[in-house]
UniProtKB/TrEMBL annotation:
<dbReference type="InterPro" id="IPR046341">
    <property type="entry name" value="SET_dom_sf"/>
</dbReference>
<dbReference type="Pfam" id="PF00856">
    <property type="entry name" value="SET"/>
</dbReference>
<feature type="domain" description="SET">
    <location>
        <begin position="23"/>
        <end position="140"/>
    </location>
</feature>
<dbReference type="InterPro" id="IPR001214">
    <property type="entry name" value="SET_dom"/>
</dbReference>
<protein>
    <submittedName>
        <fullName>SET domain-containing protein</fullName>
    </submittedName>
</protein>
Length: 170
């Protein structure tokens, strides 16, 4: 075994993104929505829940490959500008808890903010969250699954044209 110390650098000497995850969260596997994130203690409004790195997918890569896989259900809108200055909506994979927040329109208690330069999304409590509550974002109105939280008058008539290849979190 070598006695030399592993190479280290002063992390503050480099441009960096501070990471933060609220410790009062658990992942529960067997909910009607699959896995979901729940609070174990009271979480105050505006508290940071997670800072999640993002992987932006190429437009063609997404259409040719990702949309045909399970990852289709884990991609989110991400605005990009191409070399001609045209704006597009690409898809992005979100690492960390960002991909585990389920959807609820009426019980949304999580808000998020994109940083398109640093490629992270920060999730915060939209209001005070009580122990035992599920943490939910809104995916928008065009869902690719049956919403277990939907009130009867929220169920939309499906004619197939509303299906999007991504989760809409705008
Ligand atoms: C980004 S994943 C969220 C984590 C997911 N529950 C899991 O177990 O990996 C999105 C998927 O969660 C499920 N989901 C999220 N919100 C839901 C809801 N309100 N009703 C039913 N299923 C939901 C759907 O299967 C959807 O495709």
């Amino acid at each position: 075994m070598s006695n030399s110390t592993p190479k280290a650098l002063d992390p503050h000497s480099k441009p960096h993104i501070s990471l933060q995850r609220c410790p009062d969260l658990v992942l529960i596997s067997d909910t009607p929505k699959g896995r979901g994130v729940f609070a174990t203690s009271r979480i105050p409004k505006k508290a940071v829940l997670d800072v999640c790195p993002v992987l932006v997918l190429g437009l063609e890569e997404n259409a040719r490959h990702i949309e045909k896989t399970t990852l289709y259900h884990y991609t989110y809108n991400w605005p990009v500008t191409d070399q001609h200055n045209f704006k597009h909506v690409a898809q992005a994979l979100i690492f960390g808890l960002g991909s585990m927040f389920n959807h609820s329109l009426q019980d949304q208690n999580v808000v998020w903010e994109r940083d398109t330069e640093k490629l992270v999304i920060t999730y915060r409590a939209a209001r005070d969250i009580e122990p035992g509550e599920e943490l939910c974002i809104s995916y928008g109105n065009h869902l690719t699954f049956e919403d277990t939280d939907a009130l009867p008058d929220e169920v939309e008539e499906e004619d197939g044209t509303d299906h999007l290849s991504h989760i809409q979190i705008d």
